[in-house]
Amino acid sequence: METSTKTNFPLVVIIGAGFGGLEVAKGLADKPVEVLMLDKHNYHVFQPLLYQVATGSLEAESIAFSVRKNFSSQKNFRFRIAEVMGLNAETKTLDTTIGGIKYDYLVIATGSTTNFFGNKQIEKFAMPMKSIPEALNLRYLVLQNLEEAVLLKTREEREPYLNFVLVGAGPTGVELAGALAELRNHVLTKDYPELDKEHMRVYLVDFMPKVLGPFSEQASAKAKDFLVKMGVDVLLNKKVESYDGEVIKFEDGQTIRTRNVIWSAGVMGVIPKGVPEGSIIRGNRIQTDAINRVEGAENIFAIGDVAAVITEETPKGHPGVAQVAIQQGKQVAKNIVHIIKGEPTEPFKYFDKGSLATIGRNKAVADLGKIKFQGFFAWLIWMFVHLVSLLGFRNKIIVFINWIGSYINYNGGTRLIIRRFVRDNVPADARHLPKTES
Amino acid sequence: METSTKTNFPLVVIIGAGFGGLEVAKGLADKPVEVLMLDKHNYHVFQPLLYQVATGSLEAESIAFSVRKNFSSQKNFRFRIAEVMGLNAETKTLDTTIGGIKYDYLVIATGSTTNFFGNKQIEKFAMPMKSIPEALNLRYLVLQNLEEAVLLKTREEREPYLNFVLVGAGPTGVELAGALAELRNHVLTKDYPELDKEHMRVYLVDFMPKVLGPFSEQASAKAKDFLVKMGVDVLLNKKVESYDGEVIKFEDGQTIRTRNVIWSAGVMGVIPKGVPEGSIIRGNRIQTDAINRVEGAENIFAIGDVAAVITEETPKGHPGVAQVAIQQGKQVAKNIVHIIKGEPTEPFKYFDKGSLATIGRNKAVADLGKIKFQGFFAWLIWMFVHLVSLLGFRNKIIVFINWIGSYINYNGGTRLIIRRFVRDNVPADARHLPKTES
Predict the structure, then answer these.
(1) How many CB atoms are located within 10 Å of the residue A209 CB?
(2) If you measure CA to CA, which chain A residue comes closest to B85?
(3) Cβ neighbours of A276 (radius 10 Å)
(4) Which residues are in the External alternative NADH-ubiquinone oxidoreductase-like C-terminal domain (chains A, B) (predicted)?
(5) How many CA atoms are closer than 13 Å to the CA of A221, on its beta-carbon side?
(6) How would you class A359 by CB atoms within 10 Å of its CB: exposed for 0-12, middle for 13-18, buried for 19 or more?
(7) Closest approach of chain B CAs to the CA of A80, in angstroms?
(8) Per residue in A135-156, pLDDT tens?
(9) Does residue B401 have a pLDDT over 90?
(10) Domain A120-265+361-425 carries which CATH code?
(11) Fold topology of B120-265+361-422
């Protein structure tokens, strides 16, 4: 069993190396605690740029950063690759793939995963994009389907391979639609002279009447405008009924033949087993008090996407964005120290820095408080904010070079199928490509 | 069936997008032929830097380059991802995963794969490193075994996870040994404070009495010297008897407990089925005449690692290096044009530009004809030669930045386990890490 070892200080276990988890660990540096972080992966992912990994604009490694390297100079920090199977609040223990762990304080920072709202068929056939392996699968699927399209002779045969349907018009869907539209407009016929640009279609679908739901009306309208000008079919007020891997069907009867459905229509928290059922609310989030403490469990905190700070001022919690996780992580670190020292805790207060979303190579929309603007300048801001937020000097430089490259020359990025994506459910006869990996 | 389509020009089919295949295609630009290239992957790999992908110094994408992108402006070029299952020289057809292909001229440029010399047990448990997926598997295995070692308590338990045995002291083995030694010397305890540097061992084994066999005595001696100074155990005149996934045993009775055996002790040509048996010689190479033509098959050529140009001057063929493949590719392209135009062909003449191998972060050995030198200046030459040879401006810049980063700061590179490597044969109880991918 892993316990507090080197010292007599209490052990703070953090589950998850996302934006929130990192801040907690950082905030506990040089404090009278030991920190043990667990994650399924040995890296932190800069999720806002996942869509660029999916479209091959960036390598996976440049938006990920080694957790061990990040904390290599923090003496009270340990890391383990592990998955948490269960939590026992009474005995203060975790059951994990690397054995039992006894914590003194626990921070659940497990983030969120794709929500298919219980539709098993869609879950089976649509592509999620919430992790690096998922983004890579999507990249390979897109490229494989372009390769397949080349092998087919008629437009009708090619159609399902060249129709891309993105469900969910939040920032992920909008950014991905822009990137795919640019792939169509500027790369497709260079790489695949056999194909016709007009035959590739990008559909962005949402059941709401606007794209970028939580943004200002002005940003939403302009984003839609940018997308339409780039040739994206924006289908609003449209609800998906079914998708069987071949045809996506909407509630109004419309159908689209496609082998590329990307699902970013919702998220839900990832909750370890053993969290009191009573504290789990809509969207699979853990309800907490104003200091991110889980109801009825004095030494368990939840932060970020998996948490909902429910107070009078925030009856629905906060939005599921990086800034909330970061700010909650900082606050929880401070409050754990306060508790240990017997000092009063300070409630979490969210400072909304605003929202940004990019559309294509050189346009973005920005809602920064009362200041709202769209276009090239917003894109510069978007670029700057993302570069400074990215972990690691090397990553910053490499991403910057890639962006400069893409800006000068549309034909940037790496469109390599490194690991073939095999969807178990697609009929074998549709797969012409070699199956070997080596 | 794929045939010559757009024109009445003869169809030249090239199997393989390695160094040789690319040169053939390039040499046929604007010539009265159609070119169809086939490869299992949609990218060319710069194999000399594979070992840096394996050790996490470089991302896979920066040593690979899209075949389609590379030839996007060559009008007479087509590409297909395909695997060749069979060749029928009589009917001039290929049987492939994308259907039949009728060629007029065929260039076999399929390269080589790891040669385990028939030892199935070693093949099952040792790691090869001849492709990007294999290099990534190796990277993940190394990192996973370091993570496993952290979970174990005694030095004895940790030993097999921290012993690295590289079999084959050619350039691959030497360069990998240098890189692993630097990982041990400069990174290990930063990333894994739980581990002891002295407990990680790197063994470089060869059955010959020297490292870098085909290099000059001076280069071999100096390379060994560099390795020993970096803490590599160089074991020469040593033949592997068996490896069962846990213990590697040598013919002299010595054993080493290790879960990390990397096999670069030999290569063999990858020959499509249907090549006349009579023309296949030692090392699974296709014997050709002086213009790289396969004996008895007038319109089939073989180049690079899979070929052996057997003439009086070269009774054993040429060494299996990139320069041979490149020069043969250029010559074959010229000769195909000569044949079509009814002109006399020109025999292949190898111009040996010399050999380079790097050891660690800032040392190399160089045999450039009569000029032989070793050390820092050789490393500068090595770096320059590899950068200019690398395809793609973006790749050059990104690799250069990575190298500068590693030079300034040993702790460079990305040590992320993006796709968990699962060896079917390792007992399940030894694997503590989570099995999920997403």
Answers:
(1) 10
(2) A434
(3) 15
(4) 353-407
(5) 5
(6) buried
(7) 7
(8) 999 999 999 999 999 999 999 9
(9) no
(10) 3.50.50.100
(11) FAD/NAD(P)-binding domain (3.50.50)
